[in-house]
C-alpha cells in the first residue's frame, strides 16, 4: 500500500502527463495556457509530497494555518487549520512549500527551478485575465515548458525514485504546428507585449552560461533531420532466460524509507533541540547509528560493488535515538 507521499507524488505525475497531452494535441487553441496551469499543479503536488515524505507523512505538515478573531475582537495567538467555503482544510501553496522545504527541512530546490515556475505562473495568471495568442509567446512558453519538464524529471527521480521511462516527456516542437505560425508574430496586443518582454528579459542568459545544467530556467528546442544507418545503432536484447542474473529496481521504496540526507537530518535536529550543536559529539552519535539499517541506508555509485565513498540516507525514526542525548525545545 502506498503512503500519502507516494500517492501524492503519483498524482503529480498524472497532472504533468495531462499537461503534456494537452500541449501536444494536434489542434488545441488553449495549448500554452493549459500546459502552464497543469504543470504548476504538478509541481505543487510534488513539493507537498516531498514535505509529507520528510515529515513522516503527517498531513498537518502541508496544511495552512491561520489566526482567528476571538469574541473580544482580538486575534488569537493559537493557530487553527484554515478552511475553504465548504469546510475542507486548505493546504499550502507551491511557493510556501518551497520555503518550508528550505527553512524547516534544509532541502532547498535550486533557484533555477523556482525561477522557471515563477515565469510559468506569470503565464498562468495572464491566461486567466487575457488571451495569449501570439506566436512569440508560444515560443517562450515552449522554452519554459521544456525546462520545466527537464527539471521535473530530475526532481521526481531524485526525490522519489519514480521511473518515468514509460512516458514520452517532451513537448512537440512548434515546427510541427504549421508553416504559418511565424505570421502570427505581429498579433500581440499591449498586454501580451508586456508579458513577452518580461519573459524574454527574465530568461536571457549570458553566452558563458548558455550550456544547459542539471536544472534550467529555460531551454531552446532545435529540431534537425539527418540520415542514419540502422547498423550504427546500439543493440539491446531482452531475455526470459531463468538462469540470467535478476535485477530488481526498488528505488522508490528506498527513497520513501530513507528520505533524509545529512543536511536534512542536521536541520531537523537543530529545529528540535535547544542544546544541539554540530560538533564531534553529534558526529560520533550519528556515525554510531549509521551501521543500523533501521536508521540508515548507505548508497554507493555502484551498488553491486559497494566500494568507494557512499552517501548516507536516514530514516526519520533516527530522531528517537537523538532524543536520548539532547533536550527538546519547549
Which structural traits does this protein have?
single chain; 330 residues; mainly alpha; 2 domains; two-stranded antiparallel ribbon; 4 strands; 45% helix; 4% strand; DUF3644 domain-containing protein
Helix-strand layout with pairing:
Layout: H1 4-23, H2 31-54, E1 65-66, E2 80-81, H3 94-105, H4 111-129, H5 135-160, H6 190-203, H7 251-257, H8 262-272, H9 280-289, E3 296-299, E4 311-314, H10 319-322
Antiparallel strand pairs: 1-2, 3-4
Helix pairs in contact: 1-2, 2-3, 2-4, 2-5, 4-5, 5-6, 5-7
Largest sheet, if any?
2 strands, antiparallel
What integer value in Å does the Rg equal? 24 Å
Pattern of helices and strands: HHEEHHHHHHHEEH
For the residues shown, what is the average pLDDT?
80
Q: Given the C-alpha coordinates, what overall shape results?
A: globular
| Strand segment count | 4
Number of helical regions: 10
Q: What portion of the residues fall into strands of 2 or more residues?
A: under 5%
- State the low-pLDDT regions, or none: 175-188, 225-230, 232-236
Count of domains? 2
Judged by helices, strands and strand pairing, the structural class is: mainly alpha
Quaternary organisation of the protein chains: single chain
Q: For the largest beta sheet, what order do the strands appear in spatially?
A: 1-2
Protein name: DUF3644 domain-containing protein
Domain DUF3644: 8-199
InterPro entries: DUF3644
Amino acid at each position: 500500500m502506498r503512503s500519502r507521499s507516494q500517492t501524492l507524488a503519483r498524482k503529480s505525475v498524472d497532472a504533468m502527463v495531462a499537461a503534456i497531452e494537452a500541449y501536444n494535441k494536434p489542434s488545441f487553441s488553449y495549448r500554452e495556457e493549459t500546459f502552464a496551469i497543469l504543470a504548476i499543479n504538478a509541481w505543487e503536488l510534488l513539493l507537498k509530497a516531498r514535505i509529507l515524505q520528510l515529515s513522516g507523512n503527517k498531513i498537518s505538515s502541508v496544511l495552512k494555518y491561520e489566526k482567528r478573531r476571538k469574541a473580544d475582537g482580538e486575534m488569537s495567538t493559537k493557530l487553527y487549520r484554515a478552511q475553504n467555503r465548504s469546510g475542507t482544510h486548505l493546504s499550502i501553496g507551491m511557493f510556501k512549500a518551497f520555503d518550508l522545504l528550505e527553512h524547516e527541512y534544509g532541502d532547498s530546490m535550486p533557484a533555477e527551478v523556482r525561477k522557471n515556475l515563477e515565469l510559468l505562473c506569470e503565464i498562468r495568471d495572464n491566461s486567466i485575465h487575457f488571451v495569449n495568442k501570439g506566436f512569440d509567446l508560444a515560443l517562450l512558453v515552449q522554452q519554459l515548458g521544456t525546462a520545466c519538464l527537464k527539471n521535473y524529471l530530475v526532481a521526481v527521480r531524485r526525490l522519489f525514485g519514480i521511473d518515468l521511462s514509460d512516458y514520452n516527456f517532451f513537448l512537440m516542437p512548434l515546427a510541427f504546428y504549421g508553416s504559418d505560425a511565424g505570421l502570427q508574430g505581429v498579433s500581440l496586443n499591449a498586454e501580451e507585449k508586456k508579458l513577452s518582454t518580461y519573459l524574454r528579459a527574465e530568461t536571457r542568459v549570458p553566452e558563458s552560461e548558455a550550456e544547459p545544467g542539471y536544472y534550467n530556467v529555460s531551454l531552446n528546442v532545435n529540431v534537425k533531420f539527418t540520415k542514419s544507418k540502422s547498423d550504427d545503432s546500439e543493440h539491446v536484447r531482452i531475455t526470459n532466460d531463468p538462469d540470467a542474473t535478476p535485477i530488481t529496481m526498488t528505488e522508490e521504496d528506498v527513497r520513501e524509507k530513507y528520505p533524509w540526507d545529512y543536511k536534512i537530518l542536521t536541520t531537523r535536529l537543530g529545529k528540535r533541540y535547544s542544546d544541539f550543536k554540530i560538533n564531534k559529539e553529534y558526529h560520533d552519535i550519528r556515525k554510531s547509528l549509521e551501521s543500523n539499517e533501521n536508521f540508515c541506508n548507505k548508497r554507493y555509485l555502484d551498488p553491486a560493488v559497494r566500494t568507494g565513498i557512499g552517501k548516507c540516507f536516514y530514516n526519520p525514526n533516527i530522531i528517537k535515538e537523538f532524543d536520548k542525548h539532547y533536550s527538546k525545545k519547549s
